[in-house]
Amino acid sequence: MKRESLQYNVIFRSEPEGGFTAMVPSLPGCVSFGKDLVEAKKMILDAIKAYVSSLKKHNEQIISDKENFVSVVSLSPDVSYA
């Protein structure tokens, strides 16, 4: 059995109530949560494996971020809001 080398960009967002939400933008709906970054990473890896497994089962295209450059930047625009 051939093993593919897949890679995915993941966004980890801290939550106000604690913990982290992890999201994979290139896999719509692939979201998980962990009480800390270590658990969030483990949980999103499990979610990615399940997602890819489902794609294989349904003979759908499996995409990867292996060749995609991603830069995440936090910006603070100088605007007022009510």
How would you describe this structure to a colleague?
The structure is a single chain. The chain is of the alpha+beta class. A hairpin with a 7-residue loop joins strand 2 and strand 3. The mean pLDDT is 90. It has a domain of 47 residues. Strands 1-2-3 form a 3-stranded antiparallel beta sheet, covered by helices on one side.
Instruction: Identify low-pLDDT runs.
Output: none
Write the element-wise H/E pattern from the N-terminal end onward: EEEH
Number of continuous helical runs = 1
Query: Care to count the β-strands?
Result: 3
- The share of residues in helices is 25-40%
Structural class: alpha+beta
Chain-averaged pLDDT: 90
Question: Terminal Cα separation, in Å?
Answer: 58 Å
- Spatial strand order of the main sheet: 1-2-3
- Sheet having the most strands: 3 strands, antiparallel
What is the overall silhouette?
Answer: globular
Alpha carbon gyration radius: 16 Å
Strand residues, percent: 5-15%
